[in-house]
Design brief:
By secondary structure, this protein is an alpha+beta fold. 27% of the residues lie in helices and 27% in strands. It contains nine helices and 17 strands. The strands form three sheets. It has an eight-stranded mixed sheet with strand order 1-2-12-3-13-16-14-15, sandwiched between helices.
Length: 327
């Protein structure tokens, strides 16, 4: 499982540029599902055919990043955000472009109060001495993602882009285990979630599933002086009740709880005050689709070093497998 997670986490794939991730997943699942296709939005749809209900399982392939908006005469890059970028967290971080060019994020030296640090007052240094030198490596419109190794330590996974390559890894592992079911299962690896839950909406409209789940990460309440939240690392996968994008359908939520209890899988209940998942766009598609979610408790979301517990990940695979079989 760690090898799958590491491979996916280290694959380049900011929002709108997920093809390398899709190609990697296709290679992992080729011959293990009945059909693999890509739609107009770039969503990767892997189908295990059946005569029962249509079950859509979604995890987004895209990761947060930056996009170059201007190159000045000294070769420094100005940039915009792809997804949510907390300015103080990204200071000093390395980013890497698709062609391998590496840069460092920093801020204008005349700022005397860190509270005034905004993306508009930050730049990326790629070591160029002029605009012409920089443009030989990077162009306006090029995207970059954060640099962060994938490591396992004390049963935890620490990596960049855990959000949401961990969800993709869980779907891949579930598909490889091939749950015995008459249901038709759609393993959907979506695009552009970080910029508005876009790909999942298109995929859901094309599939018209009977039930849907989004597999993503959620915040935790187990670090010093954090906002209280009844979710912690190692407590089991979190069954979604509500986030800013969706209130989980009671049928879906109850099926997940029942599946967890039947197989004695540890679980938690998630109410996330900020953020959303693909379930937010799926549940309002085509007249409405009963939707919910399984979330992996994650510390330091949208940082270059996110952290999850491997036991939670493995138990999420078990829960997802049982859910598919019990629907």
């Amino acid at each position: 499982m760690f090898d799958i997670i590491k491979t996916l986490a280290q694959t380049f794939g900011p929002s709108g540029n997920e093809k390398k991730v899709a190609d990697t997943i296709s290679g992992m699942l080729r011959g293990k599902v009945d059909e693999i296709r890509t739609d107009a939005m770039g969503n990767l749809i892997c189908v295990k055919k059946g005569s029962g209900k249509k079950i859509m399982l979604a995890a987004h392939m895209d990761e947060i990043g930056i996009i170059v908006s201007y190159i000045d005469e000294k070769g420094f890059l100005r940039f915009g955000n792809i997804g949510g970028l907390p300015p103080l967290i990204i200071l000093g971080q390395r980013v890497v472009f698709e062609n391998g060019t590496v840069g460092v994020i920093w801020y204008e030296e005349n700022i005397d109060n860190m509270k005034n640090v905004t993306l508009g007052k930050m730049f990326i240094d790629i070591g160029a001495g002029s605009r012409e030198e920089a443009e030989r490596l990077v162009k306006v419109g090029d995207m970059a993602v954060f640099v962060g190794d994938t490591v396992e330590q004390n049963g935890k996974i620490i990596s960049k882009s855990i959000d949401d390559r961990i969800g993709c890894a869980i779907l891949v592992e579930t598909a490889l285990r091939q749950p015995e079911t008459d249901n038709e299962v759609y393993y959907v690896f979506t695009t552009q979630e970080e910029v508005g839950l876009r790909g999942a909406k298109t995929a859901a409209f094309g599939i018209l599933p009977d039930l849907a789940l989004a597999i993503d990460v959620c915040d935790t309440g187990d670090i010093p002086n954090c906002n209280p939240m009844a979710v912690k690392l190692g407590g089991g996968p979190a069954i979604k009740i509500k986030d800013r994008s969706v209130i989980a359908h009671p049928l879906v939520k109850d099926l997940l709880v029942k599946a967890a209890k039947n197989k004695k899988i540890p679980y938690q209940l998630e109410i996330m005050k900020d953020g959303g998942t693909d379930a937010g766009s799926i549940h309002t598609t085509a007249g409405g689709i009963p939707s919910g979610g399984i979330s992996i408790p994650c510390r330091f979301i949208h940082d270059a070093a996110e952290m999850v517990d491997l036991n939670d990940v493995n138990n999420a695979v078990k829960l997802l497998t049982e859910f598919v079989k019990s629907c």
